[in-house]
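Let's do one together. I've listed all components of the complex below, 560 residues spread over two lines.
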Amino acid sequence: MGLRQRLTPYLLGMPGGVYLAVFFVVPLFAVLSVSLQTGNPDTGFTLTWHWHEYVTAIQRYHTQFVRSFEYAAISTVLALVLAYPMAYWIAFHGGRHKSTYLLLVLLPFFVSFVIRTLAWEFILSDEGFVLGTLKDWHMLPQSTHVLSTRTAVLAGLTYSALPFMVLPLYVALERIDRRLVRAASDLYAPPASSFARVILPLSAPGIFAGFLLVFVTNVGDYVNAAILGGPGTTMIGNVIQTSYLQNFDYPMASALSSLLIAGTLVVIFLYARAFGASRIQEYA
Amino acid sequence: MVADAAPAPVEARVVRVRPARYLLPIYTWLVLAYTIVPIAVMIAYGFNKAPSGRLTFSWLGFTTEWYRHVFDIADLTNALVNSLELALASTAISLVLGVPLALALARHRFRGTTAVDSTIFVDIAAPSVVVGASLLSFFISLNVARGLGTILIAHVAFNIAFVVVVVRARAVGLDPAIEKAAADLGAAPFTAFRTVTLPLLMPGIVAAALLAFAMSIDDFIITQFVAGQTLTFPLWVYGAVKVGIPPQVFVMGTLIFAAGVVIAIANSVFQRRTEL
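Okay, and this is what the predicted structure of the assembly comes out as:
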């Protein structure tokens, strides 16, 4: 019985753990290995430990790298600004309808990601009902474009990020003990300072969980840039996708992926150092 | 959120109520409108008259034609069937692998807990393009032909993480004394698990299954990397962007949306009833 009990967690965890090791952890190293290989799809690839792929990758694509981190940062901040007051209001003043509001926030989850992005293409198109109508009323010059600009890509990225931001914020705000807020106002804290010194700090875990989920998702995204963007909005995800699936330049694509993994891991590491790794799982 | 520190303590409560009463609800509804507009566009354009069988940006009149001919495009229907099969299969497999792993993590301390924990954390937090790229590199290194099988492997790999997180959250909240009580009353360990623990875990398992199904049917980026020539519903739609989107795509999107909303509402009503 004693041995059996000690073995139980291993028996339970083994199949899932092995699966994750083989099909998630090992592939992450496979990328590293391919990035150090030389060759082409016809003759095959051999491991040559050539680091020059990385040098070329950075030389050729640093603009797209910087742009991806910039777009991810901007869309994360926009999503936070849009989501926080809403999450606050639902958590504190939603009353009986809390779950209804949450369902409305989560509605985009029930629509395929690609279709949502397409819908934005329809909304923002030159002849679409927003720009088309405004142009008909002569409120906008005929030459106005939104599609293929960074505004369009940022709108799409922010939109897909919104539910991921609202949920962790809501969870964090909902958990706040109302008596603490009460106590602040009983001690004559004006509303602004009770918000700044009680509510905001207590909701910080939610802010950081939302930040991580949204930033990491958006930094590697290429669908928004592909559908809503133009030649000037190419992100690193687009480059990786093209190198893998159209140019079959596996070493270059793998080098770019490795650099993106490294960048992301730095963000995750900083996050985990500051807030602990189990935190994100609570809110995910 | 920015406001001056008002120096009138007596009126504090009155001042505090005001933004909550007017500004915040208006703001919330504006953001909700932003959330809902693209969905409304999808539903509306599913009813748009499109003479060429391709959607146009302009509104040409109302028709239910596309609902009557929703399955007319054979390879689109095929792609949707692929997506549904993959979602079902990957949900089932990730539950079989993930639920025991979640129990092990919730109930026991064992060597490797931290390793598994961080793997799951990275699995959820890693950008899809990296997960897709690494799986493709892996399959290329092993000379595995890409198709439905590799897509299934990929979907299970990300779904396990979500299953573990959701089920573990439920399992941690369960009092181990309940299972112990069953054992004290003479139940064999497996009987105690089947008749006591499993029913209590059920809401978590159902939530995990719904989440896994939704993640799988909607996944685009990872799938595109490992799909080879096989098409799922999102892949087909993406491929059609350049040549023009047939209205059937928006009709199918609307039907999936409606089914998802109905299931979510039914699930929450059901859960509320069982918890009472």
